[in-house]
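Anyone opening a protein record will find just a pair of labelled lines. A complete record is shown below as an example:
=====
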Amino acid sequence: MRPEAPRRLLCVLGLTHASDASVARCLHLPVGPWRVAVCARCAALYSALLLIVALQLALRARLGPQPLPDAALALGGAAPALLDWGSARLGGRSGRGRRLWTGGLLGLALGRTLFLHWRDPPGELLAIQLALLLTGGATVERLRRRRRERDAPQGRD
């Protein structure tokens, strides 16, 4: 038997959206002679989102709004992914397992609030959830920019 040739790593911008240093945190899917790097958090997020939306559509009559549990899921499901992403963006460590877990939880939360929005618009809970994610993301990016400006070498006159 001939030994299997090593697979070349293919990083597609839309699937990894990561630098070479963070490709280790991606899932590597075998496709022909290639290993395609896919962002672990995004893979879990989209899989969970599609699964929960499909499940809720199939069980439509039995899954009406539950205000307290839905709010807890919407905010509690979004917060771990936001915190993990923000920590990694600011230089912290975030492994593949944590990315899968937080992405799946975010997908579950987004899938539920999206379904509620489709069922009974307007989706106030979806708007609050998206505002939390956008505000958190903007705050992390502002902190990152300030840190880079502070750490940049100062020019001399």
Observations:
- The mean pLDDT is 84.
- The beta strands are 8-11, 27-31, 34-38.
- The longest strand covers residues 27-31.
